[in-house]
Automatic annotation (TrEMBL):
PANTHER family: ALIPHATIC SULFONATES IMPORT ATP-BINDING PROTEIN SSUB (PTHR42788:SF13), TAURINE IMPORT ATP-BINDING PROTEIN-RELATED (PTHR42788). Residues 12-245 form the ABC transporter domain. Pfam families: ABC_tran (PF00005). GO terms for molecular function: ATP binding. The keyword Iron does not apply. This is ABC transporter ATP-binding protein. Residues 261-288 are annotated as: Disordered. The lineage of its organism: Bacteria, Bacillati, Actinomycetota, Actinomycetes, Pseudonocardiales. InterPro entries: AAA+_ATPase, ABC_transporter-like_ATP-bd, ABC_transporter-like_CS, ABC_transporter_ATP-bind, P-loop_NTPase. Keywords: ATP-binding, Nucleotide-binding, Transport.
Amino acid sequence: MAPQPPLAAQPLVVTDVGMTFGAGESAHEVLRGLTLTVAPGEFVCIVGPSGAGKTTLLRCLSGLLRPTSGTVSIGGRAVTEPLAEIAVVFQDYRGSLMPWLRVRDNVAFPLEGMGVARSDRNARARESLAAVGLPDVEDKYPWQLSGGMQQRVAIARAIACRSPILLMDEPFGSVDAQARFDLEDLVLRLRRELDITVVVVTHDIDEAVYLSDRVVVVAGRPTHVVDDLTIDLGPERDQITTRATPRFAELRTRVLAEIRGEQGGGGAAPAPVLGPSDDIPAAAHTPG
């Protein structure tokens, strides 16, 4: 039998995932029939309205939450608990960084549980902080840094684990606009330099289009996949020129129309401005 490729070289597969909280008359179905595949090295944004269950989906992808139905897997291995192959950056750096630990120790903290020797932990922490543009803050405490810098520390902690898959939950929502743009470009650079798979959940349509190779649109009650849209803006992105292109405007208009249509905002969704696309599976347009 041929040896199986490492999990890092295999896709993240979501198959017919559903999530219901409670039971009986009090049951609340949040997700229904979500199916998607993220290829190794791909950057995918999952975008939808606030309250659509995006964080619930991310927790299922990370193994922090088991779906009620369906499966999440990597290379045929079910993701039923947190794996070393998957790192997570949470929405609010203020709740994820430990204020009593110095920055270096915050970044190195997960490595201790992975059995990494102390000297190697510190070396990885310094390397990761340098990668996110913070080479000189390792002896500071998180509260001594700006919000954007604290979120960079949270990203450094994730990449220090050297996981091939990075999941991010609304990672830039707690910082100002300029810091948000800088962090978006940072993550694009890290994805390219580290050759990692990135999945971001967000409600920011412009952000999703700017970052992604693909945007998966989720909406409805219960939440289901509305569209799986290839973003053909090229590998190099720039905050000014990319966002100013007509193609960027077309893509964001399509996503916005689909979300508003599913929410009932102004009636049925307008016809997609791009027209039919051969690279979008028909099943992606069918409610789960």
